[in-house]
Amino acid sequence: MKESAKAAVTYIRSHCDELKIDGDFYKNRDLHIHFPEGAVPKDGPSAGVTMVSAIISELSGRPVKSSVAMTGEVTLKGKVLGIGGLKEKTMAAYNAGVKTVLLPRDNLKDLDEIDGTVKASLRFVPCSTVSDIIKNAMA
Asked: Which candidate among 12, 106, 121, 139 keeps its CA 20 to 30 Å from the CA of 24?
């Protein structure tokens, strides 16, 4: 999780202009990224796109759409990499009333494993880059 958070901040720092974020945000703002323990284990990088989106939202003032869920690992260059557990993550999105799921393009092959009702109820948007995520996640 720490590595994903660092990758998110590094990506944002190197793309401030295109994200319309003050390039000195790290000098003027204090970022504290916290994921409470709770009952859900968080040991993989699949929240990378969510961290990037949340930080960009905070720094730019642009909200993330509440009807969108997302998953994917983010590299320092802004590529979105595949994840595991797509079946379970989409079931949770469906149960939460989400309408759109942003997922790594590499995980398109895993859509066959998703429950038919869930698949019919959600719109899946494959993403290859952070730019794809931002374009589809931000209001």
From this structure: 139
Model confidence at 39: pLDDT above 60: no
Active-site entry in 20, 42, 46, 135: 46
The predicted model scores a pTM of 0.89
Q: What SS3 state is found at 48?
A: helix
Count CB neighbours of 63 within 10 A: 11
Radius of gyration of the chain (CA): 15
Active site residue 46: yes
Was domain 2-137 assigned CATH 3.30.230.10? yes
Candidate list 4, 27, 77, 89, residue with the active-site label? 89
